[in-house]
Amino acid sequence: MNQQVGLFSNKALQDMIIPLFLEQLLVMLVGLADTLVVSYAGEAAVSGVSLVNQFNTIFIYLFTALASGGAVVISQYIGRKAMDAAGESASQLLLFSVIFSALVSALVLIGNEGMLRLMFGKVESDVMQACITYLRISAYSYPALAVYNAGAALFRSVGKTSVTMYLSVASNIINVIGNLVGVFALRAGVAGVAWPSLIARTFSAVVITVLCFRKKNHVFYARKWIFQWNGALMRHILRIAIPNGLENGVFQLVKVALSSIVALFGTYQIAANGVAQSIWSLAALAGVAMGPVFITVIGQCMGNRDIQAAEIYFKKLAKITLLLSSAWNLLIFLLTPFFMRFYALEPDTKQLVIQLVLIHNLFNAIAYPFSGALSNGLRAAGDVKFTMYVSVISTIVVRLLLSWLLGVVLQMGVIGIAIAMVNDWGIRAIIFFWRQKSGKWKTFQVI
Length: 447
Fold this sequence. Notes:
By secondary structure, this protein is mostly helical. It contains 17 helices and no strands. It has helices at residues 3-7, 10-39, 43-79, 83-120, 125-140, 142-157, 161-185, 191-212, 223-226, 231-262, 267-283, 285-303, 307-340, 347-366, 368-380, 384-409, 414-438. The chain is globular and about 60 Å long. The two termini are 25 Å apart. The model is unreliable at 1-5 (pLDDT under 50). GO terms for molecular function: antiporter activity; xenobiotic transmembrane transporter activity. It is found in: Cell membrane. This is Probable multidrug resistance protein NorM. It is a multi-pass membrane protein.
């Protein structure tokens, strides 16, 4: 076995996977805590935060897509042992992240009220006021969020995922304490929730940027690279980021459309779907956490032009993802009846939640490792357009149209929505598995 294969020992993979998983779990638990604290600020605040978060998610996915593009390029240069080029790529990612997020932030601050009234014009006036307040403060945090993602891309590319985990712990502690002070001590309502998020994100952005300037990292930021535009490197990054951003954008739009379909099914099904989605998010953590691992490992192998190593790690990481995802989804399903004790729901609603979680977790365990995590490996190899086309077409044709057919036409309700979702995963899993086996990804180059 060649040297590159030996570079990622089981210990090295473990040191990447565990912090990523714990970081995702922490973010999820803090999100639940935030929701609980916000509920004490009143129904208008809860509704405003919920609606704006749907809007914010679009930009979060865009910044994440940009960082993923940077991570692929950085990983490939690291694999080639071109550390200066990797550092310059990371610096250019920071530069573009600042410019792009500042423009987005300015546009949202200028047009926020108009955007909100266009999307949520029918909501009550106090809810709309909460939306406006929360979005204005959130928009100030967009640059910090983009800068943090750029720094996280650097550390994940070199395999130091524990850095982002520890920083996430500190940031989320700041956020939770700030929420408690803002809501209970200052009684600032929705602003009492928004400002702590801004402070926590700014803290994360500053700390990770400072860490990225440390030369002992081998891959680091340098001022000479940050303040000098490199068109060639930027094109490499955007060639990955733009298709990924388009894919995520379509996915978010389809989610909004599916929310409108679910709204047709009546109160008890809407409630069951909402609770099930919160459990689904928890169950999906294993597959989501493995995505950056595929990018780092496959990206470094391809950067070194070590196709044999990439093939070995595709198989190895797929097996790890499948085992981890299966165990985690089973655990969450077994805990679901316990979770139901904390919800004031009718027995029929609780039963429907359990059915929805069963459908989700079964396919999230066996299909999502290939439809989600493995697709990141294909992107890391440079096979970005194919993954984008498959994901976009499957999301629209299978998830959206099949949801309408099963849920509305055949009157299966939210069960039909869930079946459409897992069919989307299944079809993508088959196609991406075939694509990986075909070896077509070996012919692409990112750098």
